[in-house]
Design a protein that fits this description.
Helix content of chain B: under 10%
Structural class of chain A: mainly beta
Number of strands of chain A: 11
Strand content of chain A: over 45%
Order of helices and strands of chain B: EEEEEEEEEEE
Order of helices and strands of chain A: EEEEEEEEEEE
Largest interface: A-B, 24 and 25 residues
Low-confidence stretches of chain A: none
Oligomer: heterodimer
Number of helices of chain B: 0
Shape of chain A: globular
Radius of gyration of chain A: 14 Å
Mean pLDDT of chain B: 93
Radius of gyration of chain B: 13 Å
Mean pLDDT of chain A: 93
Helix content of chain A: under 10%
Largest sheet of chain B: 7 strands, mixed
Number of strands of chain B: 11
Distance between the termini of chain B: 33 Å
Structural class of chain B: mainly beta
Largest sheet of chain A: 6 strands, mixed
């Protein structure tokens, strides 16, 4: 069974204090790993897709990395507007053609001004 | 934002009544999904569709049915609502093919079953 575990559950940082969020996964074969941002009362917003170990992607203050067992979302010099819940999801190779994702429960990030 | 709307956005209903939630897309994407989101469980797939009139079950499909008669619309029906179906429901869409397997989400429907 595919599993996604995110840690920590919640993280409070001072503005400008860099940190990383972790997404550990177990799948029979990874087709893609996805990061989403979710603001309260809204739907998840797509951030990144990573396909293979060693891959990195960046967007503003966020950088996502991938290994064979986990992904990290690095947040550099965060601002209060980066406060949100960050979700990780995996798509196994066995689900090719139907795009089903397995989600983690998320990390709730709060940036204090 | 991807062109996805959900209706209603909020609904309160009573146990035993049928409820239908609607998802409408303007992106002409092939795949559509219904998820529910509950504290401590994350997003869980209820049903999905891979084309008009083509649907399949997800991880938590009991008590739910779906229909897709047009590319742009995907309906989720709770046949007889129960309190355990109180949740936030999200619709998502994706295009098929390796370059397009990201899913894009709608704004959600908050359903309360009393």
């Amino acid at each position: 069974e595919d599993q996604v575990t995110q840690s920590p559950e919640a993280l409070r940082l001072q503005e400008g204090e860099s940190s990383s969020l972790n997404c550990s996964y177990t799948v029979s074969g990874l087709r893609g790993l996805f990061w989403y941002r979710q603001d309260p009362g809204k739907g998840p917003e797509f951030l990144f897709t990573l396909y293979s170990a060693g891959e990195e992607k960046e967007k503003e203050r966020l950088k996502a990395t991938l290994t064979k067992k986990e992904s990290f979302l690095h947040i550099t010099a965060p601002k209060p507007e980066d406060s949100a819940t960050y979700l990780c999801a995996v798509q196994p190779i066995s689900n090719f053609g139907n795009e089903k994702l397995t989600f983690g429960t998320g990390t709730r990030l709060t940036i204090i001004p | 934002d991807a062109g996805i709307t959900q209706s209603p956005r909020h609904k309160v209903t009573e146990t035993g009544t049928p409820v239908t939630l609607r998802c409408h897309q303007t992106e002409n994407h092939r795949y559509m999904y219904w998820y529910r989101q509950d504290p401590g469980h994350g997003l869980r797939l209820i049903h999905y569709s891979y084309g008009v009139k083509d649907t399949d079950k997800g991880e938590v499909s009991d008590g739910y049915s779906v229909s897709r008669s047009k590319t742009e619309d995907f309906l989720l029906t709770l046949e007889s609502a129960t309190s355990s179906q109180t949740s936030v429901y999200f619709c998502a869409i994706s295009e098929s093919g390796q370059a397009y397997n990201e899913q894009f989400f709608g704004p959600g429907t908050r359903l309360t079953v009393l």
